[in-house]
Amino acid sequence: MDALVNKQSFIGLPDCTWLYSGAEVPPHQGCLDAVAEYFNYRAKGPKGRIRNAEVEQSCKVNIASLLNGKPSDIALLSNSSEVISMIAHSLDFKEGDNVVINDLEFPSGVLPWVLLRKMGLEVRVVHHTNWQVTVEDIMAQVDDRTRLVMTSHVSYLTGARLDYRSLYALLKHTGTLLFLDATQSLGAIPVDMNDSDFVVCSSYKWLLSTHGMGILAINPARTADFQPRAVGWRSVTDMFGPDRFESFAFHEDARRFELGFPSYPTVYAANFSTGLLLEQGIDRIEQHILKLGGMVIERLLDRGYEVMTPVEPGRRAGNISVVSEHGEAIANHLSEHNIYVWGGDGRFRISVHLFNDEEDINNLFRELGTYKK
């Protein structure tokens, strides 16, 4: 089974086996060229700013296409943690209100809510059963005082995919908002922002870009009047208005969440990488990932490993997680042979993306078999 793209187009990829995309991806030469373009235009003064605006808009168009949304509903911030905290602290909580999270969430999706406990917010944690959290598990914790459900589309911990569309179908007729973290899915499998109220995603994992950007997608169906509790010059309609020392008006679209300039080197890189993903086609990428991941799971099970990730293709994406108290040591052992997986937190995680092929899987299991506890 061949890769979907030429490995030679990724810097350093021909010299290693990269099964690390759940953490970050190898740099694509096109991203390097895009960042170089940014610096070249930076040297052109005002012309550089014009080009920045063009690339930023193009990037938003690409991201909106990946999310089946509109560019005006996309905001570009610094990182996912900033996005989540901004939304968390912008909700008008009253004492006795609650949010629902689960114990398969990455810390960035947990910590802002824990902080808000000091303000009287109740944080309800859904606990997994055999590494799975279902829609029914989440809805069992939702009541008329639940303001928001925060969940990942694909768990960083287990690789399990949640049916967020069914969850939103239940929530959208209530006063409870859905905040979906697509960091481990966008760029690998289809994501539709119309089936959530907020979507957040990082730039440097499955989207094939660099560090420096947190994507926020706002579904205006239930959030048109939602206003942030942070403001900057980019958030407002007229930063030099005559009444700027007394009042201001937020943009009506997602720009109201953007405080200042984004990281333009990242925007240029993401504009390239999201274009590459759209060119390849997310459905095609998904099928490649699921087929290759199925090979990984089958071989892991044949060797007696306890796999956290569901076997069924529709219940997983690109991450395959394995229970192991030696996860970090296994990852370190493989790294010595230029095979990159993530290890720690009671597991090791193998991530497959569009640049992986069957040879990568063979390399992994050859060296995995040499690991000695």
From TrEMBL:
Protein name: Aminotransferase class V-fold PLP-dependent enzyme
Keyword Transferase annotated: yes
Organism the protein comes from: Cohnella silvisoli
Keyword Ribonucleoprotein applies: no
Single GO molecular function: transaminase activity
Pfam family for this entry, one: Aminotran_5
SUPFAM superfamilies xref list: PLP-dependent transferases
Annotated keywords: Aminotransferase, Transferase
Domain of life: Bacteria
InterPro entries according to UniProt: Aminotrans_V_dom, PyrdxlP-dep_Trfase, PyrdxlP-dep_Trfase_major, PyrdxlP-dep_Trfase_small
Domain Aminotransferase class V: 55-364
